[in-house]
Structure formats: structure tokens, C-alpha cells
Amino acid sequence: MGQQIFKGNIIFTPSPEELKICAKSHIVVEDGTVEGIYERLPEKYGHAPVKDYGERLILPGFVDLHVHAAQFYQCGLGLDRELIDWLSDCTFPAESRFSDPVYAREAYSLFADELIRQGTARACIFATIHKESTGLLFEILQEKGIGAFVGKVNMDRNCPGFLREETEVSIEETEELIIQYGGHPLVKPILTPRFAPSCSGKLLAAIGELAEKYNLPVQSHLAENRREVEWVRELFPSRPTYSDVYFDSGLFGQTPTLMAHGIYLTDRELGLIKDNGVVLVHCPESNINLASGIMPVRKWLGRGIRAGLGSDVGAGHTLAMSKAVVRAIQLSKLMKFFDPWAKPLTIAEAFYMATKGGGSFFGKVGSFEKGYSFDAIVVEDDPRIAGRLSLEEQFQRFLYTGDDRNIIARFVRGRQVG
Amino acid sequence: MGQQIFKGNIIFTPSPEELKICAKSHIVVEDGTVEGIYERLPEKYGHAPVKDYGERLILPGFVDLHVHAAQFYQCGLGLDRELIDWLSDCTFPAESRFSDPVYAREAYSLFADELIRQGTARACIFATIHKESTGLLFEILQEKGIGAFVGKVNMDRNCPGFLREETEVSIEETEELIIQYGGHPLVKPILTPRFAPSCSGKLLAAIGELAEKYNLPVQSHLAENRREVEWVRELFPSRPTYSDVYFDSGLFGQTPTLMAHGIYLTDRELGLIKDNGVVLVHCPESNINLASGIMPVRKWLGRGIRAGLGSDVGAGHTLAMSKAVVRAIQLSKLMKFFDPWAKPLTIAEAFYMATKGGGSFFGKVGSFEKGYSFDAIVVEDDPRIAGRLSLEEQFQRFLYTGDDRNIIARFVRGRQVG
């Protein structure tokens, strides 16, 4: 791939506190990795070709830490339900369609195209229980050039017969996919027990063993809804908390772990999460669509917990992570009605979560510091409005009012994908 | 204009409880007014031309009951502030630009185009204090064909000098605009004291007299933010409540009245609102962007109060009323965390607020019953996804995931405007 040089108004968040704005600057990329940002190009690059994006903004591509590819067709539907009913009435029937690879190929292609269109460069994705269509999802994403962790879902109880796996088969098929798809540089397997209620203790333990054997990351759901938390307590009466169920199975930080939601957490769990480096995924749109609650994200961050953002499609109704940034800020503003001392998230903090914060799960991803993967989107706006605004305002305006039409180019590790 | 016949999948809400779906039906329109809906066209229309929209949805155009045209450029900016600071730091300086009619003409044209693009057929609009540019707004809206109430803002205190009016001049100029623009069938004047804190008692009383003299409607803001409510109490110590300030000036239901927000209301005020037929405007996006709070809309509706929806651009960051519908539903789901008995708004209820509910302020607007103005949008979706869905699901999907690209035609009183 060699050397590439891009020019534009470069904006990123090296830390949650800093919105770094490099006006009319050059970003030099070597083999897909950022080498440096220069207002004036050093002499050694003097004759290199520059892709000049003019007045446009160059931002890190988004990182979506929690999304269900098989629920893409469901966006916006059935949202008059809360979690457990929504799963059984809407989601399980929809996921059962993925037993058909022809259906899956079309659905996953549309999903991948939309993910890229919306400016997501990396995603942590739940497929379904179906081995063959999960394999197709790996292949489609590889072909499109996006970065992802992809998990075949495991579940062997508390779900309809048409989605219930035999425990052994679930493990075998998971391992087969790991072996088949483990070697790709950008699209990689992740262990994906759906959530504690739909997995037997035996299944969870076996998945934990796979995580250790192949040194693979883990993703699941945690404490999204009060009824769910109560249910886990009933199903695992010997475990002190929901988090302990995962921890005792080797699925809670023993390898890199993502837990979606994490709204209703005890002090013990917050300790386990922090001590084991578990990353929580805040999914604000989903949390209000399913009336789950508001994650006290500022409080969790204040306790030293790592957190990123997820679209959680289909309970969230859009793959646009710019909207997850806005919704996270909006919900953090409502926290003051529960806790008068709660301070809202700033735009920099929420954008950090959607880029470098979540990107850390992939390595050096989500920033434009030296050594980071050049995952980027190029953003333009109506010059009749943007022309009157500062660069920081243009950035805010894109997050709040922009959509995929404002994204004119998308890069993952230096390669243009859209 | 004569007779028009449209065919498609017609969906509307004759009441908040009923989502009426007329699959593959005809809607007959006479001189811009709905004559009837027929699955099979009666014989008398047998040879009339039919505009066939095929599988597409035909929905009532949206009604935006609260929007600031001069804040359109501000969408998404400065939202790390609450109401009073946002006004003084961002909004007042932005509105001052409208002293320049050249600037105003461009800004208002962009605003009107976007309003139409997003499927709004009718809007209740705040301009600024500036007479000349407010006049331009009347003219631009007339030309574009949208229906609107337009108000020159009045304020004579508690605002920067560059926006402060002399009381007498404020009244004179308001009356001049009423006389100049009072005769148009679709774009009409409305009295628009900004809100109690920025109007002297003398100004409020004089505006009330104009309302009576010309029998004109009134729009303002009410109880959006706790600090604002406290401020009104300090400014008008002799009035028992914020609502009484307006009521005592003849600005609270003596003529048709819209009050935006209405979050923090006392029992006395709820009584005044109901007894005087004041219409409250719920602006959910604005209320979370400025951390104002959540309007207990279901509770207010249960007390017999009329309410519609508003985009409240620029504190709300989008003119798309489909998004106001979704945000109203989402916030109503969060009410359960404040009041365990609160029931969320259904899609039909929220859509009703954004069409027939708000439309009642304009007369027979916002529905497709006989005698209603044919204000409509035609909606299409990706057939690869929509083709699998019921009509009700397609409707839900448009509200949650659609945008202006899904709207392929827009009508106001039978005339195509976009």
C-alpha cells in the first residue's frame, strides 16, 4: 500500500478531554498506519502526491462495539416491547430466518453496506446461532474491507426450539468457525454467548475454555434490564451477581471482554469489571427504545471503567454512530434528574467513546496519533452553512445534523472502502 | 384546482387510539379537500385520471407546532448549555443577524426548503424582532406553498441591547405586519411574545390587545426550565403562576393559543390550560438537548389537555417531525423511571400529535377524513426490506429509520410543494 498523504481539516480525540483540531493539515500514512500530522509537509515528502480534501473534515472512522447483524431488517419495529418480550416476539423469529444461507447472504450484504455507508470502520458483531450464515458474514465483511470481530451466537436454553442448540453442537460449530476464519487480519472471531439466561452453565464453561484455548476475546450482554437481572439471579442462585456468572466461566476479562449495557450493576460487579479490564458498551438508543434505563456512564468512567459506544441494532434503530454519540450526550443530560451532581458528557468525551475509546478493543484504532491505523471518514457540509462556522462547530453540526450523505470517503487501515 | 385522485397505501390517525390503514386505496380530493377514501372507486369517478403511487405509503403531512426559523443555522451547536445561557451565548447573537434582510432572505429560504423536504406541511414559526426580515419570511413561505403561522418576536427587556425593542415600536411594527400579511389563505400572522421574562407587563398587555383586536392566535413559551420558572416568579411577584402572567394579559386562550414546552406546571396552571383550550407543544429533542426535563405528556393528555409536537429548531437539531415522533415515544418510555405507573406513548398517539393533534390548530388539517385539507407525503422504502413487512411495519420503519430521501412527494391543500 505504501505511502499516502491526505490533506484537510483533521479532527480527533487523543483523550476524552481533548478535541484536537489540525486545520488545513496533512496526515501521512505508511502502509495503512498514521506516520504523522503536519501543517506544512516536511521536505522529504515534498514531491509525494497529496489527496487534498480542501475544506472538508477528516475524522476517525467510527467504532461500533455492539451490533446484531441479523437484526438489521428489524430496525424500528416492535419497539413497544421491553427486552424479554421483544426477544421472544420479534427477534428470535427474525433470527431464525438465518438458517437459510440465501436469505443470510442478502441480509448480511445489506447490513455491511449500510455499516460502511454510515462511516463505521470497526464493529463487534453478533451473528446468529447458524454456522453457515455466520461464515458468510465473515466472508462478506472480509470482501467489503471493514474491520470486525464476528461471533456465532451460542444459546442452548430459554429460547424457542427453532433457535435452541445442543450444547455440544454449539461448541463444535463455534470451534470450527474459529479455525476456519481465525487467520484474517481485519475480520476475526469473538466468542459470543448470547447472554447468561440463554446459556446453560455447561455451555458457558465450554465457551470460556475456547476463549482460553484460542486466546480469543468475548462479547455478551450484562445487566440491561431489571427483569433480566432478576431472571439471572433465579437461574444462577449460587452466584453472587450476574457478572460472577460470566467470571466463573472464564468469560469476564480472562481474555479481552466486551459487555453490552451494564446499567444495573452492584459495587461488587463494578470492582470485577474494573479489575478485569472488562469494557462496557453503552447503547443509548437501544436503552431508551426498550425502556431499559439510562447507563450512568459518567459515574462508571469516574470509577476507572473503560466504556465504548454501540448502535445495538436492531434494538437501536440506526447504524449511524454519530447518532449514538448524540444520544449518549442527551441521556447523560437527563441523569441530572436522577442525580443532581451528574455532569453531562461533553462532545469530546462521547466522540472519544465512539472512536479511540471503543477502538482500543481493536488495538491502535480510533485516533490519528502516530502508529494508529488510518481508519477515517471525510465529511463535507453545505458550504452555505458550514462556511459560517468554526471547525469545532462544523464537527458538532455533522454529529447532530449530518448523515451518510455528508460522508464522501471512508478508509479502513488506509484502504478506501466507500 | 378541481378534482384529484391518488392511489396508494393510505395511513392516518383519526384518533390517538386508531392507526387507520387503507391498503391499495384511492383518496379523492376536491379543490384541495379530502372527499373520501375508497378501496374501489365509485362509478362516478370511473374515467377520472388516477395518480397511482403503487406500493408507496400516503401519510398526512407533518405539523410542526413550534419552530424558530432564525435558528436553523444553529442546529446542533452550543448544546452544552441550558436554556438561559444558550439564549444569551448562542441564540441572541445569531438572531441579531436578521437585522440584515439579505442575510435573512438566504437563511429563511434554506429553512423553508428544508422544512418542505422533511415533509412538514404546516408550521407555527417564530421569526425574530426584525420587521423587514419577518416580512420576507411571510413572502418566502407563501411562494413555497407551505401552510404556516408566522410571528414577529416581541421583546423589550432582559435581552442584549441589539435585540431590545422599544415597547411602542414593537407593537407598531407587529400591527403593521398583521395588516400587511393578514390576507393570505395559508400563511398567516400569529402574535409571538418571546416569553414572559423578555417582555414587560406593558408589552404583554398590548400584545393581548392586538390579539383581541384582530382576533389572532398567540404563541409563546411556558415552563420549559426550572430556572426560567423561578425567574418568572421573581419578575412577576404579584402573579400566582407563570401561566397567570399570560392569562392576565389576554394571551392564554382568549384567542387560540400555543404554549411550547409546559414541563413544570402546577395544578392551577393545568386547570387554566384545560379550561382555556390552550394547546401545549411537546418538543422532546429540545428538552433533552437543553437538559430541560421530560414533559409528562401522557399525564397532561389524561387531564384533557390538547398537545401537539414541535421540532423547536434550533434547540431541537432537526426539522424532521418523524424524529420528534420517535423522540416523544422514547422520552415517554423513560417516564417510568420517575413514575412507575406511566405508560409510554404508542406510535399512533405520537403520530396523531404530529398530524391531526397539532393540525387542529390550523382547522381541518392532519387527517384524511372527509373535509380535511389534503396535506400529504408519499413515502417509499427499499423494496428489499419493505417488501417483507406489513403496512404497519413499513409505517413504523419510516418513522424510525427513514429520512427525507424516503419522501418522494409532498402536498399542501392539494398542491404539490416538493
UniProtKB/TrEMBL annotation, chains A, B:
SUPFAM superfamilies assigned: Composite domain of metallo-dependent hydrolases (SSF51338), Metallo-dependent hydrolases (SSF51556)
Pfam families assigned: Amidohydro_1 (PF01979)
Swiss-Prot/TrEMBL keywords: Hydrolase, Metal-binding, Zinc
Gene Ontology terms, MF aspect: guanine deaminase activity; zinc ion binding
The enzyme's E.C. designation: 3.5.4.3
Enzyme kind, highest EC tier: hydrolase
Cofactor comment: Binds 1 zinc ion per subunit.
Positions of the Amidohydrolase-related domain: 58-417
Catalysed reactions, as listed in the record: guanine + H2O + H(+) = xanthine + NH4(+)
Cellular component terms per the entry's GO annotation: cytosol
Annotated metabolic or biological route of this protein: Purine metabolism; guanine degradation; xanthine from guanine: step 1/1
Cofactor requirement: Zn(2+)
GO biological process: guanine catabolic process
Annotated family: Belongs to the metallo-dependent hydrolases superfamily. ATZ/TRZ family.
Known role: Catalyzes the hydrolytic deamination of guanine, producing xanthine and ammonia.
UniProt-listed PANTHER family: GUANINE DEAMINASE
Protein name as it appears in the record: Guanine deaminase
